[in-house]
Amino acid sequence: MWGWVRGRDPQLIVVRRAVRVTLVACLGFYLCRYVVGSADAAPYALFGAVALGALSQIPGSPRQRARTLIAVLPVGWALISLGTLLSVNDWVAAAGIFVLGFAVSFAGVGGPRLVGLAAGMQLLYILPSFPPYDPGSLPERLAGFTLAVVLLAVAEVVFWPDPAPVPYRHRLADAVSAVAACLEALADDWSGDPTGRERLAALVPEATEAADALRPSRLQPIDRPASAGRRDRALSSAAGTSRLLLGRVVDLYFSADREAITRPAAIELLRTTAGCVGATGAWLRDDGPLPDTNLVVAAITDFRVARMNTDPNGLPPERLRLGALALSLGEWTKTLVFAVRVAAGEPPRHPDPTPVSGRPGQFWFAYRRTPALYWHRLKENLTPRSVAFQGALRLAAALAVARLIAGALDLSHGFWVLLTILTVLRTSAAETRSALRPALIGTVAGSIVAALLLLLGADPLIFAIALPVVMIAGFAAGPLLGLGWSQALFTLVITLVFAQVTPVDWRLAEQRVTDVLIGAAVGVLIGLFAWPRGGAGELNRATGTFLAAAAEVVRETIAVMAKGADPGAALPEARRAGQLAEASFALYQNERHPAATLDWQATLVAGHHAVRGAEALVRSCPAGGLLPCVTQLTALAADVAGWYDRSAEQLLRNETPPRPGEQKGPMAWPDDLGQDLYIVADLRAWLDGLREDLTNMTGRPEPGDDLRAQVSRVADGAT
Q1: Where are the beta strands (DSSP E) in 594-678?
Q2: At residue 280, does pLDDT exceed 90?
Q3: Which of 101, 148, 270, 664 has the fewest CB atoms within 10 Å, i.e. the most exposed one?
Q4: Alpha-carbon span 579 to 573, nearest angstrom
Q5: What is the per-residue DSSP string for 107-136?
Q6: What DSSP line would sit under 161-207, residue for residue?
Q7: How far from each other are the two terminal CA atoms of the chain, in whole angstroms?
Q8: Residue 139: pLDDT band with limits 50, 70, 90
Q9: DSSP 386-440
Q10: Distance between CA atoms of 197 and 193, rounded to whole angstroms?
Q11: Positive or negative, the Cα torsion across 169, 174, 178, 184?
């Protein structure tokens, strides 16, 4: 038995938390019920521990979780007080549940710490929002809840604490350090070291695995850097940039240009970027000082000077490609170092350089205060197209309807109806239905056992002794055995608790089944009528909108670079569309879906690469000097943007995007533009990469045993 538990819970995280919550809940309940003699405080001591210890998922180390618990204590007081005062009338209570239910759930857009607390916070309002209307009992209720939170915070630190989780920055350090090793091997290869190419081929699988470990789908929601704060935004940006670097390394590996005219300068730039990337990884792992952007900026400047001193006239474009790829490595390394400095809390040394017309820029958040960042996150999700808004409204409506029904039917334990909704309501109708069957079966089974116990007229002392044993099993059963076992054992827990608070008979079990059936029915109906497709439906729309915005970015960038047009709103709009697409993708990953024909990560890659590449080009290259080849550039950009538009249209119709067709016949490119030939090479390298990204959306057609296939699913992506 122990071996089976170890197999499913190697570090005993589930068992540890079940034991801690049980210890706190039972200790608080027994102190209030049998020592203090308060039947009003006892349920709040027990359910306070359940709400914040079992229903809530708080990220961080044991000390961080303890601090979070103490910090939310005033919020819990406010919710219990409001629930108590608004229980005077069914309609008032339902209105309060709707408003607070939406607010508590929607506040989760601020980050995983708030998401993890949402369900527990909901229970704290639900529990006192039912009759009897008794404001006089509020002090005892608050005292019981306070006792639970304080005991739980202490238990997190001193009683069988969880092992500290691997910090996200250490995972990022592994990915960044692996890229640095690849860059060093690539530089050796270019310098003539015969072992460099072999080392790179051996290092890429390790770098790919490290980059893949940063995928949101490989992380628990509470471990993702998804808060609205500056640090998490910067870490997310750094993770996306590290994958951009990995993808560019592989592009350079396959570059056959061994006679590029800027090769010596490119080697120097590559070695500097390798050193800066390595220093970034060391700092993330707490093994070195904070890296400085000055080194890579100086290396980029030196490379540009070398290009300026080398006349490219008369050379075929292919001989300029290696330099363009190396320059993008330098630009992205600068972005990586800047992002890590922001994550470290270093204020930017200069005002936001993004023109007012082009804001928000890539690092707009580095120039805002933390409260403003959270307010911005709330505002950008306050739209019916936001999955966070949809989920909060769906849950609030279900809770309010259930509260009205429970009040109209005068259910003596009506809060069970709402607790059932918190348990079974999922982000899609299909997910709700899949949770419904085990929940109902478990509840009925638990109710039968509870009814038998009550019919036998067992001594209350037996209930007190059995409570901690059943609680430990119940809290561990959900993660280890499934929802059905959890519901069955939790039904027994509720029976054992109320049998010690008020006189009960076997009909308590009958009421539990009735309440669960009502809650399940409300949850299913709301799930069917309120955005029933959940994350899947919104992901198609949001990603299609993102790719359509990326197409406009491609067109606008070429217009700015070739014709000297003024930058418009394409980049800011694409950034906003990308944020909503990422939010939809995050929700989608928490749902169960059949195998998809589309790689959603690679699809988001295509949009982010368009945006990030355009930012670097517009920022670093003079605009409007490429009129002699404007026809060729416009045609190439129109072709790439057209495939973006086609992909967007297919996604908006819930269809699989087509693979890009072969590029039309070779174009005649001028070779007498002087320094402008380098800019043309930079633009062509970017557009060729975008076409490759679109190809990766439905998977590469060749066998997946080469370096390109190994990184195609992680390179260039954003978290």
Answers
A1: none
A2: yes
A3: 664
A4: 10
A5: GGGG-HHHHHHHHHHHHHHHGGGSSS--GG
A6: PPPPPPPHHHHHHHHHHHHHHHHHHHHHHHTT-TTHHHHHHHHHHHH
A7: 39
A8: very high
A9: -HHHHHHHHHHHHHHHHHHHHHHTT-TTTHHHHHHHHHH--SSHHHHHHHHHHHH
A10: 8
A11: positive
Phi/psi region, residue 348 (left: phi>0; alpha: psi -120 to 50; beta: rest), is: beta
Compute the average pLDDT of residues 7-18: 84
Give the residue-averaged pLDDT of 558-569: 82
- Distance from C-alpha of 11 to C-alpha of 21, rounded to nearest angstrom: 17
**Which helix (H) or strand (E) is 533 found in, with range?**
none
The total number of residues shown for the chain amounts to 719
The fold of the 168-372 domain, in CATH, is Methane Monooxygenase Hydroxylase; Chain G, domain 1 (1.20.58)
Q: What percent of the chain has pLDDT over 90?
A: 24
Largest CA distance in the chain: 99
Residue 160 has pLDDT above 80, yes or no: yes
Q: Which two tokens stand for residue 666?
A: 């070779």
Q: What is the pLDDT of residues 564-576, one digit of tens each?
A: 788 888 888 898 8
If phi over 0 gives left and psi between -120 and 50 gives alpha, with beta otherwise, what is residue 442? alpha
The label of the residue with tokens 């909503």 reads 580
Q: What is the model's pLDDT at position 323?
A: 83
Rounded Cα–Cα distance for residues 68 and 58 (Å): 8
| Higher-scoring residue by pLDDT: 144, 363 | 144
Token pair 């209105």 is at which residue? 95
**Residue type at 344?**
A
C-alpha–C-alpha distance, residues 257 and 319, integer Å:
6
Token code pair at residue 525: 């109906």
Look up residue 560 and give its DSSP letter: I
Number of DSSP helices (H) and strands (E) in the chain, helices first: 27, 0
DSSP category for residue 487: H
Smallest Cα–Cα separation from 104: which of 129, 133, 72, 131? 72
Residue 617 pLDDT: 81
